[in-house]
Amino acid sequence: MELSTFWFLLIAVLFTGYFVLEGFDFGVGVLLRVLGRDDRERRVLINTIGPVWDGNEVWLITAGGAMFAAFPEWYATLFSGFYLPLLLILLALIVRGVAFEYRHGRDHAGWKDRWDWAITIGSVVPAVLWGVAFANIFRGVPLTADHEYAGGLLTLLNPYGLLGGATFLAVFVTHGALFLALKTAGDIREHANRLAGRAGLVAVLLAGTFLVWSLVLRANPAAVVLAVLAAVALVAGLAANRVRREGWAFAGTATAIALTVATLFTALFPEVMPSTLDPAGTLTTANASSTPYTLTIMTWVAAIFTPIVLLYQAWTYWIFRRRLDTTHIPTH
Amino acid sequence: MDALDVARWQFGVTTVYHFLFVPLTIGLGPLVAVLQTMWLRTGDEKYLRLTKFYGKLFLINFAMGIVTGIVQEFQFGMNWSDYSRFVGDIFGAPLAIEALLAFFLESTFLGLWIFGWDRLPKRVHLATIWAAAIGSVLSAYFILAANSFMQNPVGYRIDPESGRAELTDFVAVLTNKVALITFPHTIAGAFLVAGSLIVSVSLWHVMRRGVTDETPAHRFATRFGAVVTLVATAAVLVTGDIQSKIMTQVQPMKMAAAEGLYDTESPAAFSVLTVGSLDGGREVFALKIPYLLSWLSTGDVNGEVHGINDLQAQYAAQYGPGDYAPMIPVAYWSFRLMIGFGLAAALVALLVLWAQRRGRTPSSKWLLRAGLVLPLLPLAANAFGWIFTEMGRQPWIVFGEMLTRDGVSRSVSLTEVLTSFTAFTLIYAILAVVEVRLLLTYAKRGLPPVAPPPDDDPGDRDADEDRPLAFAY
């Protein structure tokens, strides 16, 4: 396998990891005000993701860094081209990140309420905008021959892009609800379980349409197989939820998210950012990549350290495996 | 005003802001780990309470460090995409490795530390804060290696076809002599900040709150912080001295600008303070120490130090017509303010140590005031240090290879950069107020009481499922 292909694969894996992991903590954030009726319940919800959300977000930083190192042209074109959506994502991630730490800083209802809104909005905005961004990367955007983005913000808000945004949000909400059903006990668990069922229906509908539309835009046999498996995993996850097998249900949405990201990357390969304006502007794994020397070094580093990261992150999830409910929340 | 100006302001504002939090994270993490280690070794509750107290201040600050850090990474692609295209082959590698090696370690193990108090055996729990601390120090190394490439590009060639910089020797990039000296200098600066914060907070408790059960702990912490501050100052001075010699070799213009030295001199005098136009013309008043600049720059009291005019002529011949000097007043004053604020912090720490000698309780109103502003001094020193480093490199974005103005994103409009600059500045301003208030609230609250740690071994803890968490958001 060519090194640039390997790095395309690795970046796909990093984004998959990011969406599977931060996907559920976005979902929990979106549902904070829906499932948490009082402060104590909200604290339960936040504490289910408390030990892990920060580590989840590092998947994004790593994906960004890997893109910069392995495909600088792709990184430069994407980040300067999708300027305003990325700005909104950054602002959302900033207020969300500090909100987790700051909301318990003062024992004052209005203070906590404002930070709860920060968490909710800070979770909705990136969930939707990552969907819009990925749909547009897949669909292609106007790029000039020297790889500069020639569109504007409205170029990105096309029907397919917006469907991508809605799909990401619905799937993450379902994924988050299932995570909560798996990680909590008592009332919250019951509510999360029921809500996952309802949100799941919306998710199936949107994700189904999104996958079909994606395959119409571009497809290869492997992508079709992956898309079908993604749909099956989502439906199977929801079925498991109905019979209260919450672990399997969560595994179902996790698999569905992973397979959906895999479908997009597989159908896209070897292009990384197609141009709708000038075919010469299309970025591919070949014309966007770093030199073989850089890729070789990066490959060694990734080969040694990725398994270590996976091990200790998995260990974190194991350490904090028990279910939480309101009795576990200290009074201060 | 064009997009380039705004992009430069945005980089300056977001970087300086980010670096208000980073030194505290880098310095305070290991110090909290040391306190927790002392608790584990002595069993003295005082150290546990200090661990939790300063751990909390560390976490409030850490949240800001991480969220503003993402902006830094994305900004290269958003505002400086032509720069990213030019150096991506080299510059991206340390950034990606920083994330993979350092950020994952830092954030994952910090999560384990925060929530793991009653879930992990004591020794394993202690190891998690050390792992997080090591992660933050490692991340400093990789980002400084990337930055040092911009100051002193090594281990690369320019591809004649694409015109881009390509990596030829990664070890050379990681062992760039600028990186090797900037790293300890920056880490020492971080400990200067963290030590000062501890002195400031604990001194306030010692002086203002009368004798309580917390007093012995705060008296200890005050001394601990002061010693850290003084040791860090010594390290900053030694590393800074070596760094200035290396800087004179690789970026002579930066040294000349720092001194406002227009004509080559040997021996050269160090200007402590010059009042004048700093354009080489009028000099109203100057306080100079003979031979010192020669020694600082070259290690030889009679060494030759190149002046701005000579270097300008030399660069113009080498790179074509253009202005190759940075803004002299900015370089001159930021260099002095960096040193001045750093030394002021050391002085305050020394006074505090003296005032508390042999069990005395300091009572001077002035010392209390000095103690309260103490953490601001090394923070200012750090900020001016970065302003000096980055402004002194101008007009280059990569020294000798790419001008800053050529690195900006071509597809990004003035409106877009202006929008993001305004948005970031606004949100950063609001969050700064919130953060400082929260830090003050917690700092004033004093040491948390500690419940006796459970004696059972962790194997039994699952049986105790309904006990409230030891720490929860």
Present the secondary structure layout:
The complex is a heterodimer of chains A (332) and B (473).
Chain A: H1 3-30, H2 32-35, H3 39-49, H4 53-70, H5 72-81, H6 83-102, H7 109-139, H8 153-156, H9 159-183, H10 187-217, H11 221-242, H12 246-268, E1 271-273, E2 283-284, H13 292-319
Antiparallel strand pairs in A: 1-2
Helix pairs in contact in A: 1-4, 1-7, 1-9, 1-12, 1-13, 4-5, 6-7, 7-9, 9-10, 9-12, 10-11, 10-12, 11-12
Chain B: H1 3-42, H2 45-79, H3 81-115, H4 122-151, E1 156-158, E2 165-167, H5 170-174, H6 177-208, H7 215-250, H8 252-259, E3 270-276, E4 283-289, H9 292-298, H10 308-319, H11 328-355, H12 365-373, H13 376-393, E5 396-398, E6 402-403, H14 414-445
Structure, explained:
The complex is a heterodimer of chains A (332) and B (473). Chain A is mainly alpha-helical and 332 residues long. Helices cover 77% and strands 2% of the residues of chain A. Chain A is built from 13 helices and two strands, in the order H-H-H-H-H-H-H-H-H-H-H-H-E-E-H. A two-stranded antiparallel sheet of chain A has the order 1-2. In chain A, helix 1 (3-30) crosses helix 12 (246-268), helix 4 packs across helix 5 (72-81) and helix 9 packs antiparallel against helix 12 (246-268). Chain A is globular, with a radius of gyration of 20 Å. The mean pLDDT of chain A is 91. Chain B is mainly alpha-helical and 473 residues long. Chain B has two domains: 3-251 and 328-472, no CATH class; 252-325, no CATH class. Chain B has helices spanning 3-42, 45-79, 81-115, 122-151, 170-174, 177-208, 215-250, 252-259, 292-298, 308-319, 328-355, 365-373, 376-393, 414-445; strands spanning 156-158, 165-167, 270-276, 283-289, 396-398, 402-403. Chain B is globular and about 70 Å long. The mean pLDDT of chain B is 87. Classes of the chains: A mainly alpha (332), B mainly alpha (473). At the A-B interface, helix 3, helix 4, helix 5, helix 6 and helix 13 of A face helix 2, helix 3 and helix 14 of B.
